[in-house]
Amino acid sequence: MEREALLHTSSSPKNSELSSPTKRPSKSLLIIFALTNVAFLICFSKIKFSTGGTEVTKIARPEVIVKVPTEISTTSTALSSTSQFISSTNAPAPRSPENKIFPQNSTDCPYEQWNQVRTDFIPNMNFHKKLSKKWKSDFKYLYHTLPSAGAAFVHEDQIVVTLTAENQVDDTVYCRYYDCRRREIMDPFKSTIFPRCTVFCPRRPGTKFITISKDLNETLEYSIPIVPRLEKPPHYFTVCMATLYGDEPKFLQIVDFIEYHKLQGATFFHIYLRNVSDYDRVLLDNYVKTGDIELITLQDHFWRADYMWHHGQINDCHHRSKHFSKWTALIDIDERLEMKSDKFKTVVDYLDSIQDDSISSLRFRVKWVMKHNYTPARYENETQLQSEMIFHKYQNTSQLGRERDQPKCIIRPENVAMMSIHGPKDMYKGKKKIVVPEDTGFIRHYRNVENKIFAHGYKKMMSHAPFNISPIDHDIDKDLSKKIMDRVKWTYEIVQPTCEQKAKMYRVESTSPPCNNETKNLN
After folding, report:
1. What EC number(s) is this enzyme filed under (predicted)?
2. pLDDT at 444 (0 to 100)
3. What are the tens digits of pLDDT across the range 90-107?
4. Where residue 134 falls among pLDDT bands split at 50, 70, 90?
5. How far apart are the C-alpha atoms of 33 and 68, rounded to whole Å?
6. Does the predicted model carry a pTM greater than 0.85?
7. CA 268 to chain centre
8. Alpha carbons 77 and 68: distance in angstroms, whole number
């Protein structure tokens, strides 16, 4: 609906300022037109001039001075901005088109259409309250005293904040909002930590950062940026790799995991990191550079053992994947989703066959594979790499585990209410889980039986004897071997110039390192 309002009338400038002595504007009329959600400030000037001895007054061609963004949900903000504009007796000069993409000054925030929404409720709030009575926290052994926001994702109707603290389930907290300059937007919201380590917050216009506090007076933790999840999900099938930590070298396991699941149809990976060697990190950074993975570092202000991050990682993956991918697998670095049906050659073939939208969790049972040694710390040559590939070296495989024996899942993230390591604890109304049949697929779990295995894990694995030699599919073996070889060589086989070329390179900076020593240092 079009609205019109008289904003400001200014006196004429002096005649000496006019470009022509026969023309003089008398008055200017400033009008705002509000069409949908954008207001235009338009200036109309009356101009008097003489023609044939007769003085004529006409309204000059209107000029758009500035656009003032507005939004129904943020009317008060828009009017406030307009009032500030009106209060000046001199309208600002029009900016050149190339500068309109930038803020007017250092205190302004860019206008973003998606970020003009205010909500006052949390979807599924009553359902979450019922779940909170059903599931009580079992993480009281942790000693966090602050919520510690880890990540935040904005959806059409809410902002989802994942926490790194896991011991404060059901605690009352406050959502605290900040604009692009990290100035607090004084419109907090009282919420609750649930499920597990999650806080749901309504939206506030202009919010770019958010944090969570236990009351309104405490010293706030650092705010974190919100990540938009407002567009059509960019992926069909993605994978979350559980937290990387520990002293076993991992470059070969990482490249095997990623390249294998890419062959299964995965197009993106969220990989969670506590610590790896510098050598392993080179490979991870290479995958970041090519857009295959996002690396999420798990860290906060409070100590815990590395393995104690697993539940928080699962929770973050669940919410990070909402409206990012239709299907998401949550598995460990030593696990592979394997299809056994002639009908479904890959995981995405199987996912494509699921036409029932209520199916939101696919539970894969496990076959364990005995792994007796650490993988190598560094790449040496093609022969070494081929012989050390996990699926070549380890094939002694157990019988299929039962449904409750450490299964893993592929989920529809937005349909799951609460996740655990081995699958959803609860689904939203009308959604259901299915167990994947043995002849369709299972998880191949490479269990290190010599090092760093929990006692109960070894006992569970051995209860599924007898073990038999069971290699992976021949075609996958062939393709995967090449993919691994290509990626490792591209990452680690650095093209070396000759000693003379290196010496010449250093002489540019007037340095002359001994050629032989330099070669040793760079290799």
Report:
1. 2.4.1.-
2. 98
3. 455 555 555 677 777 889
4. confident
5. 10
6. no
7. 11
8. 11
Q: Are residues 49 and 92 in the same domain?
A: yes
User: What is the CB neighbour count within 10 angstroms for residue 476?
Assistant: 19
**Other Cβ atoms closer than 10 A to 496:** 11
Q: Which two tokens stand for residue 469?
A: 């030699």
Residue type, 305: A
User: Of 414, 432, 447, which one is at a domain's C-terminal end?
Assistant: 447
Spell out the SS3 assignment of 228-273: ECCCCCCEEEEEEEEEECCCCCCHHHHHHHHHHHHHCCCCEEEEEE
Instruction: Please indicate, yes or no, whether residues 35 and 182 belong to a single structural domain of this protein.
Output: no
Domain hosting residue 185, numbered range = 125-228
Across the range 205-221, mean pLDDT stands at 96
Q: Are residues 255 and 219 in the same domain?
A: no
**Shared domain check, 64 and 161:** no
How far is 424 from 431, CA to CA, in rounded Å? Answer: 11
d(CA 79, CA 271): 45
Task: Say if 52 falls within a structural domain.
Answer: yes
Query: Mind listing the pLDDT tens digit for each residue in 431-482?
Result: 999 999 999 999 999 998 876 566 677 888 899 999 999 999 999 999 999 9
